[in-house]
Design goal:
This protein is an alpha/beta fold and about 400 residues long. The chain is about 40% helix and about 10% strand.
Length: about 400
């Protein structure tokens, strides 16, 4: 024999070690096969993913080519952040249509502007663009081509500007003429109008609600950040006692108008916009019998915009002998009443400030009053579109 015989214990240990080695080899082989299978599967998924991506890209390119659009519309799921302090101006649709005019307003950012309120549907019933999904708008003759809402929204956002769209609701001469069945009327069936000859539509008719909110929804889908509802009330100008409201119910005016704001918020909020209302400055001080009850309306709104224009206040209002002569005090006391009425509400106060028939210092008195009252900001109003630049500066 070349090798001596092994000890039985050694032979046992040798056989045991040999069995262990075979088991380790088998486990290693199985593990190797499993690893190869996983790597092959991963490679296949990667290839499939690349292929799918390529196919989707081709499909998307084909869709874009067919539509003539490079971009696809994406509806926001939540509103863009509000500026720390809103400092903005009012711009009509007609002004926005003038060559270079929007650029002029956007250039006010160098003076401190961060917000523009642009009319979507104004007090004359005109609609600044053709709203998708609202065929009645075109039928009334109200549609204009003042601006492209998507292009305007993109330009504003590139400039860092917060964009508010104003929608006048119940004063609507175009809808009243085209659809007398939706209008406020006289007892003889004729259209009721204001002293200026402007028709109103019926706040009790849900079809009227749907019309204005559908116009607002088109702007929201186009990229506006906020929808401000204006003329959300019953008429105040003209022979209001002669106004007839078909289908009138026993619901109090204040509850009816608050119900409209709740409806508007429910429809518009899912489109990623804030919803606000402009209210008369005295609506928080006394019942104006127009349906504007700030406490009820604010329960549904993100912002409340009191129209604190001293020129609209009569002598003695708010305990001030001549509100027009004390613009800062008028705004200050107006906001005291609004803060009381909005107590417990999450709606923020952003007043409208009068920027016509006043010197810059008188405009600044109103701005300082809004800041002293802790308002979230302010908006300057001048129907002619001329603004006090120094009133847009951030607080020093």
């Amino acid at each position: 024999m070349l090798y001596p015989s092994l000890d039985p214990n050694e032979r046992f240990r040798a056989r045991r070690d040999a069995v262990r080695r075979r088991k380790r080899r088998r486990r290693a082989a199985v593990a190797g096969l499993l690893l190869l299978a996983v790597l092959a599967l991963a490679a296949g998924m990667t290839l499939a993913g690349k292929s799918g991506t390529s196919g989707n890209a081709t499909s998307a390119e084909g869709a874009n080519a067919g539509s003539g659009s490079v971009e696809t519309l994406e509806i926001a799921t939540r509103p863009r952040p509000l500026p720390v302090e809103v400092r903005g101006v009012h711009v009509t649709g007609a002004l926005a249509s003038l060559p270079g005019k929007l650029d002029e307003y956007m250039a006010l950012t160098r003076h401190g502007l961060n917000t523009i309120e642009l009319d979507i549907k104004d007090e004359g019933g005109e609609i600044a663009f053709a709203p998708s999904g609202v065929p009645l708008a075109k039928k009334t003759g109200a549609v204009r081509s003042y601006y492209d809402p998507r292009k305007v929204a993109r330009r504003m956002h590139r400039k860092g500007i917060y964009l508010i769209g104003r929608v006048v609701v119940f004063q609507d001469p175009y809808l009243a003429r085209a659809r007398p069945d939706l209008a406020v009327r006289r007892s003889d069936g004729s259209l009721w109008t204001t002293n200026a000859g402007l028709g109103w539509v019926n706040p009790y008719d849900r079809r009227v609600w749907e019309y204005s909110v559908s116009v607002a929804a088109a702007a929201a889908r186009a990229g506006f950040d906020e929808i401000m509802l204006d003329y959300v009330r019953f008429p105040s100008d003209g022979d209001v006692g002669a106004a007839v409201y078909p289908g009138k119910t026993s619901v109090p005016r204040g509850r009816l108008i608050a119900g409209f704001t709740e409806y508007a918020k429910r429809r518009l909020a899912p489109l990623g916009v804030r919803v606000s209302t402009a209210l008369f400055g005295l609506s928080a001080t006394r019942d104006m019998r127009l349906g504007q009850v700030p406490r009820w309306i604010s329960a549904h709104m993100d912002q409340i915009h009191p129209m604190a224009y001293p020129a609209l206040y009569g002598g003695g209002e708010l305990g001030i002998p001549s509100p027009s002569s004390e613009p800062g005090e008028t705004v200050f006391r107006t906001l005291i009443d609004f803060k009381r009425e909005l107590k417990g509400s999450r709606a923020q106060l952003i007043p409208w400030i009068q920027d016509w028939n006043y010197a810059p210092e008188q405009v600044m008195q109103q701005v300082r009053a809004a800041r002293l009252q802790g308002a979230k900001g302010y908006l300057l109003w001048n129907a002619s579109g001329l603004y006090t630049k120094s009133a847009l500066a951030p607080p020093s």
